[in-house]
Amino acid sequence: MKNYYIWTIGCQMNKADSAALAGALESAGYCRAASPAEADLVVVNSCSVRENAEQRVYGKLGALADVKRSRPGTIIALMGCMVGADDSELRARLPMVDYFFPPAATRQVLDRVVPDFACDGALGKGIAAGSWEGAVAAFVPIIHGCDNFCTYCIVPYRRGREQSRPVEDIVRETEDLVRKGVKEVTLLGQNVNSYGHYLRGTPDLADLFWEVNGVEGLERIRFLTSHPKDMSERLIEAIASVPKVCEYVNLPVQSGDDEVLKRMGRRYNVAKYEETISKLRDRVSDLALATDLIVGFPGESYEQFQNSYALLERVGFDQVHVAAYSRRPGTAAAHMGDDVSVEEKKARLEAVELLQERVAASINAQLVGRTVEVLFEDLKDGKWQGRTRTNKLVFVQSGRDIRGLLAAVQIIAATPWSLRGELA
Ligand code: SAM
Ligand code: SF4
Ligand code: F3S
Predict the structure, then answer these.
(1) What's the CA gap between 373 and 9, in Å, rounded?
(2) In whole angstroms, what is the distance from residue 296 CA to residue 339 CA?
(3) CA nearest to 152, candidates 349, 348, 334, 324
(4) Is 161 found in the same domain as 72?
(5) CA-to-CA distance for 142 and 115, rounded, in angstroms?
(6) For 385-389, what is the mean pLDDT?
(7) What's the CA-to-centroid distance between 240 and ligand 1, angstroms?
(8) What's the pLDDT band for 132 if we cut at 50, 70, 90?
(9) Which atom of ligand 1 is nearest to the CA of 152?
(10) Pick from 122, 154, 176: which residue ends a domain?
(11) Could you tell me whether strands 248-250 and 319-324 are parallel, antiparallel, or unpaired per DSSP bridges?
């Protein structure tokens, strides 16, 4: 019996890819190891979105070189977004790595490490669901790649063009997951709003919602991420009316300044973005909104940053994922210079975090005294943790095993990051 260990960094898509690989390796007879030192195969699933993510991967591989020195038979593979079409530089820099694989390379990894395994036949048969055994919430990729080429972003170069999975595959995978105890799925893609473009019959995300909604035993559907330019009225209507679709939308704005948005290649302006937010709020009651924002994009003046800051104040997001711009070689923005200093980027980032702490504290405080539906996922440090339909983290004390329970919870306290409640 052989053992595997997967280390993952990056977005939910990478986590889903790791889960699919784990499921496939287990079907091929591998067992999950508790640490790299006990594994015959170690896969590092990498992220390239910012330089600091890459630095962490290099650090991890440095530590794995020691593992390999003490156990020379250990196979080390680097998978994910750091591996581009030309991996010669990586090969020279990372002698401890035996194999390099692009993102979502389950089939290639299996072909390489278990060549006798009938990979083709097995991959379609619920293997991806395998590694979600015991989980309450799982990720289901619905569209791979990205066609948008935002000027700062490496993802389209590493994950290729958009490719939607057929509706039947997604429904079957969801059914497999529900049989394993999963109650909530997050439908994943870099831009789920363009789901279905090249599929026969061109189903869209609204059609997919209705199909997945029909899976018996499934309680909730989430979806990530939505591109603002593709948030159609039909989709807004579906979010409002498909019962299992949760009232939570992550709509990355990236900047609150029209000129910066243009140079980012985002193809909407601030007015259009806010119009979409208004439509969503009009149609979906109790909606929670999240966004992604980049500070210090090439040429971003202080005034332009303040436009982003003002947008965040006006909209009042439940969550903001803010990042300092990181130059990605090979992208269009890499040629625009990187002229906002590290200190200034840091100051802008901290200003956004401080503002968001205040905004989220005030939004969450309004929930104190209210009763909300919580799906419990895990026990951590003696407290059960779950999420509301609006994706808020809730902690509850209970002596019972309430994993997988969908229950009414009365909120008794709130912070900007989480809520505390009692089973009602
Ligand atoms: N597809 C999603 C979208 O349209 O926003 C998410 C893509 S990316 C994997 C996640 C986030 O990383 C982006 O929303 C963006 O805010 C951030 N990001 C991407 N490239 C970046 C860069 N070069 N520097 C800093 N942040 C970046
Ligand atoms: Fe990157 Fe833009 Fe695609 Fe999102 S939509 S993955 S930010 S290129
Ligand atoms: Fe995700 Fe990082 Fe790739 S954020 S898509 S793993 S570059």
Answers:
(1) 30
(2) 8
(3) 334
(4) no
(5) 27
(6) 98
(7) 27
(8) confident
(9) 23
(10) 122
(11) unpaired
Specify whether 106 is located in the same domain as 219: no
Amino acid in position 364: N
Tokens of 359: 């905004």
- Considering the domain architecture, whether residues 266 and 248 belong to the same structural domain is answered as yes
The reply to whether 63 and 148 lie within a common domain is no
For the CA of 189, the nearest atom of ligand 1: 1
- Looking at the structure of the chain, the number of domains it has is 3
153 & 82 share domain: no
Residues 136 and 261 in one domain: yes
Segments forming the whole domain that contains residue 51: 3-122
Look up the CATH number of the domain holding residue 417.
2.40.50.140
C-alpha–C-alpha distance, residues 362 and 366, integer Å: 7
On whether both 352 and 395 belong to a single domain, the answer is no
Predicted pLDDT at 118: 65
The DSSP-derived string for 319-344 is: EEEEEE----TTSGGGGS---S-HHH
CA-159 nearest atom, ligand 3: 5
- pLDDT, residue 121, reads 52
Q: Is the pLDDT of residue 119 over 90?
A: no
Residues with CB under 6 A from ligand 1: 11, 49-50, 152-153, 155, 190-191, 225, 227, 252, 254, 292, 294, 323, 325-326, 328
**8 Å CB contact between 348 and 295:** yes
Tens of pLDDT, residues 227-279: 999 999 999 999 999 999 999 999 999 999 999 999 999 999 999 999 999 99
- From the CA of 14, how far away is ligand 3's center (Å)? 6
By most ligand atoms within 8 Å of CB, the mutation choice from 155, 195, 264 for ligand 2 is 155
CATH number at residue 37: 3.40.50.12160
User: From ligand 1's centre to the CA of 82, what distance in Å?
Assistant: 15
Q: Any residues with Cβ below 6 Å from ligand 3, and which?
A: 10-11, 13-14, 47-49, 80-81, 154-155, 159
**351 alpha carbon, distance to own chain's centre:** 24
> Which amino acid residue places its CA nearest to atom 13 of ligand 1?
292
> Cα(102) to centroid of ligand 2, in Å?
18
> Distance from the CA of 296 to the center of ligand 1, in angstroms?
13
Ligand nearest to the CA of 192: 1
Q: Kindly report the pTM of this predicted structure.
A: 0.96
Write the CATH number for 333.
3.80.30.20
Domain stop point among 78, 100, 122 = 122
Distance 260 CA to ligand 2 centre (A): 15
Q: Mark whether 338 and 379 lie in a shared domain.
A: no
